[in-house]
Design goal:
Helices cover 56% and strands 0% of the residues. The protein contains four helices and no strands.
Length: 87
């Protein structure tokens, strides 16, 4: 409602009308579909941030568990396994 009301563009309150209308009336990519769960998750992140010890632990575990993920590896696997592009 703040965007639609021109809060972020007081000089041109209608600036974001097209954007808001497309998200509200035709959310093809489901940008807003899970916004409530995103908001809840963000609240949990903020709560964790204020607890330095738990934040540190979460950050270290998150980094350590990313070992298998690599965008290069993922793209290469997708190209060979899905597209059969590198065979």
């Amino acid at each position: 409602q703040a965007i639609r009301g021109g809060v972020f563009s007081p000089d041109d309150p209608m600036r974001y009308t097209g954007l808001v209308d497309s998200l509200v009336d035709y959310d093809r990519f489901l940008v807003c579909a899970d916004f409530d769960s995103y908001w809840d998750a963000q609240a949990r992140v903020e709560e964790r941030w204020h607890d330095a010890q738990h934040w540190w632990r979460s950050a270290v575990l998150n980094t350590a568990r990313m070992g298998w993920f690599s965008s290069d590896r993922t793209i290469r696997e997708y190209a060979t396994d899905i597209w059969k592009a590198l065979e």
